[in-house]
Amino acid sequence: MTLNADLAPYAAQPATSQGRRFAEPPPSSRTEFQRDRDRIIHSAAFRRLEYKTQVFVNYEGDLFRTRLTHSLEVAQIARSVARNLRLNEDLIEAIALAHDLGHTPFGHAGQDALNACMQSYGGFEHNLQSLRVVDALEERYGAFDGLNLTFETREGILKHCSLENAAKLGAIGQRFIDRKQPSLEAQLVDLADTIAYNNHDIDDGLRSGLLTVEQLAQVDLFARHRHEVEAVFPGIGERRAIYETVRRMINALIVDLIQTSQDRIAQAQPASIDAVRSSGTLIAFSDRMRQDAALMKRFLHENLYRHYLVNRMTTKARRIITALFDAFMEEPNLLPPDYRLPAGQNDMQAQARKIADYIAGMTDRYATREHRRLFMVEEL
Ligand code: MG
């Protein structure tokens, strides 16, 4: 396979890929990274993203983002930046679509609850779980467990990792030990994730009525673009004004990200993906934009993620996850056979991990239903 000359020298190329864990013949009609993306789209974990949420619970309304639409937005934002930097869009799409596969039901509340349950059994980290889904949990192929993705896609999925876990992961964890960077494609998806969720949480927060425009006007990034919209479209309706404002914020973030990254790449002049891995972070916002985005993030933490109505859901989520985990640990025979240890085996750590895999794989509504099935006599 030859190099794709349309891509920059520092981009990921299928021809220089570090390959798959299990050798496979090369694809005949698509690139290795396209094959990764296709495997992700056809996985069961990807379909479940439709019924998992980040802030709002799935059945609270049909217009809120789910993890599926979030992942699509991340892919869109990352690809539009990538084209400008001549990075590998196929790889970017694969990483973006897979980046949240390991998320528990009920968003961050679910992840924190499951991590607390797993404290004595090695903990639970959604990012590591995304890698576990594509490396081990999907059962679709005769020759191997998982999806057998390329090193580059797996490297992008694993955004952060403790040194303790990195040491157990082999080649894919090595960069955390060596303090190296992942590909520019991976760095880009990470920032596109931030752009996507900050902006869609504003949009969902306003639509739900948990946030008001007056509150948001305290945040400079929002206020600036809101004034711009009012100047260009005097008397514009509220709904359209919000969309116009969010649209302009996303655009400003993207333009800033492209410019700053182009400057950094021009300075570092990485000649290959290996040079990228040994450089500092090259995909970045300007200092000003980073501060603006951090203020927005803090605003959302204080006003949306800790809103009392969100807190109520957070508490319910914690109760459901904890109750499920405890019930299964106490009586593993309540579990579907696939999640039980083979008869005669009595390794609590291994059983706890299987329970975490089961719970993490649940959608919001499946977890709620499973909770009823375990605790309500009238529910089968
Ligand atoms: Mg995400």
Structure explained in plain terms:
The protein is an all-alpha fold and 380 residues long. It has 18 helices and no strands. The mean pLDDT is 93. 42% of the residues are buried. It has one domain (30-309): Hypothetical protein af1432. The chain has helices spanning 32-41, 44-48, 67-85, 89-98, 107-117, 126-137, 151-157, 163-169, 174-178, 184-208, 213-216, 220-232, 238-268, 273-278, 287-305, 308-330, 348-361, 364-375. α5 runs parallel beside α16, α7 packs across α10 (184-208) and α10 (184-208) packs antiparallel against α13 (238-268). Bound molecules: magnesium ion (MG). Magnesium ion is lined by residues 70, 99-100, 193, 197. Residues 70, 99-100, 193, 197 line the site of magnesium ion.
> Could you name the ranges where pLDDT drops below 50 across 5 or more consecutive residues?
none
Radius of gyration equals 22 Å
Any idea what the CATH architecture is?
Answer: Orthogonal Bundle
Helix content: 55-70%
Count of separate DSSP helical elements? 18
Biggest sheet character: none
Average pLDDT reading? 93
Summarize this structure briefly:
The protein has helices spanning 32-41, 44-48, 67-85, 89-98, 107-117, 126-137, 151-157, 163-169, 174-178, 184-208, 213-216, 220-232, 238-268, 273-278, 287-305, 308-330, 348-361, 364-375. By secondary structure, the chain is mostly helical. Residues 70, 99-100, 193, 197 line the site of magnesium ion (MG).
